[in-house]
Fold each of these.
Amino acid sequence: MQHEPEILSSTQHDVICSTSIERIVTGRNAALQQIEGVINQIVEISRLTQSISGKTALDWAMKQDFRCGCWLMEKAETAMKSITCNLDRSIWRDLMKKSGMLSLMDAQARDQWDRNLEGDNIPEISEANILSTFEQLHQSKGEVFERGVINVFRHLSWDYKSNSPCSFGRKIIINNMVKHDKWGYGLAWGWRRDQLVDLDRMLHLLDGKPVPDSRTDIAYRLSGHIQQEPHSQTFDDTYVSIRYFQKGSAHVTFKRLDLMEQMNDIIAKHYPGMLAKPR
């Protein structure tokens, strides 16, 4: 690449310096210890009420329709495992968000990360696990970023002459970006929307600019434009201009050719010999 995004230049320590790992681990362990104590107290209270009245604390809770949290009383061990998984899952997600790594990931990579956090086999939150995980993420962040560029390129349709199978051209065409019916235009939400957001993310990173979050990304801005300008078929944004058509396709024109060429450098790196020699 001719220009490396600023976020790719930071060290692994810089990536997580905004969070205190020791504080997080200590707080997590203290919280789980108190929760375990509360569950044990509920279990003990249940035994006492059963010996006195023949009904457990769970019976009294269900009588009062206190459904939320009643499963805590059924099996303390199962409840503790579930609570630990949920807490660790939320901590991993928060750490990932603060690390800045999510901004490097395309939709496919972020979906894989989310799926890895599902289930009951989440890595325990510990200082060793956090440092090891983010060291691996730091070492692979360049690869993750470049894979995002490649994925955007690979999902272009080669049915259009504007879409070169060898490189990004000044204009690319994306199918099924919008929908059109008797009420007018609308943004087609789905993986095409993710493709547009991924493209805009790469352009921001290559330009060394902060990546907009989902509340202000290019899909959100395009959707707002369509609603506010129902008869318009052209949307002008920071790095691209988009013209959309009734059949659903969108013509995306790059406004910064230097950034487009940097993405082509990445393609050439992964597919040597595909691009023509520089003019």
Amino acid sequence: MIVDLFAGPRGWSEGLRLLGLADVGLEWDTAACRTAHAAGHATIQTDVAAYPTTPFAGRVTGLIASPPCQAWSRAGKRGGLEDQPLVTQTVHDLAHGRDNRSAVLAQCKDERSLLAAEPMRWLYDLRPEWVCMEEVPDVLPLWKQYALYLQGWGYSTWVGVLNAADYGVPQTRKRAILIASRTRPVTAPTPTHAKAPELDLFGECLKPWVSMAEALGWSEGLTVNTRGDRRTAGGNEFPADRPSWALTEKARSWVLHTNRDQRADGSRQTADPYAGPAPSFTAKAGGQWVLRRNSQKNATVRPTTEPAGTLFFGHHCNNVSWENEDAESVRITVAEAAVLQSFRPDYPFQGTKTAQFTQIGNAVPPLLAAAVVGAATGLDWRAAVQGEEERHVA
């Protein structure tokens, strides 16, 4: 059994699925639990800090944990930094079988801070074969503390910061990672992509970072007609490499056209469905359109020819939008945000629009998850990811 603490909408689980594995997730948020259920992932809706480890004793092979990071993140109030001495003391106590969480919690500036110590309770009680943990980079010192105790219990460990873009995610999302195993030596997963790939001594080269345009399948020369292919004229038409018209229930009538579809009488014929990517998403493929991470002056702004910056949602400033030089602005869609986090575009996020965006922003990118779990287990995650990409192309 693999247990996923603070499982969210199941970014880790989607990565495990690529490797042919499955887990049981513990999560308290109702919308995230509904998402997990819709995606076919086993879920227990509960408060991780209150749930007993006894039902899992002797049954757990792997433990995954991504504690809530709001209190530690640079994007939040960072109350966790003030609480860090309390958290590190709690980790120490739990690693020695002393559970003082109730007393410490009353002293915390942010009650979420102590959740970063919660995985140690599970590690002490269950001693799984392998461990994978993820958080914002500020938590790296805490992960190093975890690694010291795990090493004392006979685990091989690796702790560091990984960039999701180096593993095929179209987003430069950096995360503090802990990988541990008591059955094999571990190290960081070998990157598959690079910002500026170079030939190595064997004449091989990594792939370039995946751009937003590449991930979303945008290309030049495609147009969409909103009325469909009918004998009479009508409907609106817009370029597929520009923001689409508003999606309504009539979007099912939209058809894709290319420049070679013009008939002699001025009408168009239906495009070959294999002639190019379908206009599933909204935004410009070239450098004219950019993705702005939020409404603040110092917001990360990236052209679509590059990976996205780290995506955040759930705050009034985090209005992630596509913009162009003509001052047009189009709010990113749930499907677009999902793809930029390396979920499939039809992943069944549940809840309000705000809840869906929040789940995406908090999730571990599945491609990064597959790479990290592959490093912990020895499974060939690169072959699994390549097979999935080939399946989608087919």
Amino acid sequence: MKSRNLAVPERVLAIGAHPDDIELNAGATLAKWGAAGCEVSLLVCTDGSKGTWDPDAEPGELVAVRRNEQRESARRLGATGSVVFLDWIDGELESGPAPRRQLVSWIRKLRPVVVLGHDPWRRWRLHPDHRHAGWLTVDAIVAARDTHFFPDLGLAPHRPDALLLFEADEPDHAEYTGGFETIKATALEAFVSQYETTLSLPPDPDDTDRARLHNRVAGDLMDAGRTAGLASAELFKLIDNL
């Protein structure tokens, strides 16, 4: 790894394609920073309306459920900042001017020191929302820093100090997450609608099922940490020349 453990930022903004993407990829890091006094904000690009295998599910009802789950998960992480939903239709997100304008607005409002998001350069990525959320994050950082992009927003430009890309093929930065494994797993448990699709849990998990999830989360963090010489870690591609 090129680097380990950024200084705890004053404010951070994590950007995910869907509810639960942020927690899956950076939940322990955000919990660590939140516990140290960082203002953690989360932004979700889509409405999550297709996040089920149930053909009889009503999309509007699922949107409301996933919003509430995301807010509860943020609470469990200790995120004291904003929880923002851009509400683009699940599976139809595009990295064009309209969503970029929205994201620029939030970057300028929240003024994060560090931004986290999907790595858009990941090879052979299938899900279009993850690709587009990654490009939106990168493109919005460029636009947010320069005064001539979206001047009609009436917001001062803002340039973050660092961008951490998760799901990267070639991570070069590790954040030590020891002691925050349980918080990450507990935050993921808030996404009840995703038990079957994402978390491999039965609809009504018992203590054994939940322990299995916690052990899996801790094991994944341990495996990631091993590549960085740490007991537990989440890995990112660090871009610090913004």
Amino acid sequence: MINKIQTSMAPDALGAYSQAIRIGNSLYCSGQIGIDPATKKLKNSDVSVQAEQALKNLRAVINVAGFDIQNIVKSTIFMININDFSKINEVYNNFFKDSNYYPARSAVSIIALPGGAKVEIEVICQK
């Protein structure tokens, strides 16, 4: 059974997609950017602040689906400037500091992201 996951604690989708889809014990989360769900605007122009907000948004989505960060098995980070990798990585490491492991991860540099974002992060969770 496929279940759409939606929470107001993360920004609404900017297009024709769901925040996440749960299929059994798996959760597939769409990418989150650093939009503050309260203001519906990018949190800040700083990539570290945007990465932190994107991860907070992901946590909100996975928590409402009954998962937590210990269930993240794969993440993908999209960034518009590869030189921001170390800043994003520092935020990412802090997010997973209490986890028993780091998930498998890909990180890629791309030309642009929606809404002028500098970073987007997506995850897959498994129970």
